[in-house]
Amino acid sequence: PGGKDDLFAIAAKLSPREAPAIRFDCGKDDALLGSNRKFHRHLLRLKVKHQYRECPGEHNWAYWDEHIIEAIRFHAKHLKL
User: Fold this and answer.
1) What's this model's pTM, rounded to 2 decimal places?
2) Residue of 72, 24, 76 whose CA lies nearest to 51
């Protein structure tokens, strides 16, 4: 915890006004759902603007195939690609 790859620590150092566009989603049957919810709550407490969604599905390629286009569109828009 607190290392250079710790998203919680990185988010805590962000200025809410200068934070990059953040978007993530998670399947409701994904083993990582609890971690994603915890990070979402962390961002809310920090007042870091972000998009978070929970959708039916697991942590697998079927879920990714269904949601990848949304992720690409979001990041292309915010990265001005």
Assistant:
1) 0.89
2) 24
Closest CA to 71 of 31, 28, 21, 37: 21
Q: Looking at this protein, which amino acid is placed at residue 35? A: S
Angle at 44 between CA 39 and CA 50, to 5 degrees: 80
Domain boundaries along the sequence of the chain? 7-78
Q: Determine what percent of the chain falls in helix, strand and coil, rounding each to the nearest 5.
A: 45, 10, 40
What's the token pair of residue 27? 């399947």
Q: What is the pLDDT of residues 28-55, one digit of tens each?
A: 999 999 999 999 999 999 999 999 999 9
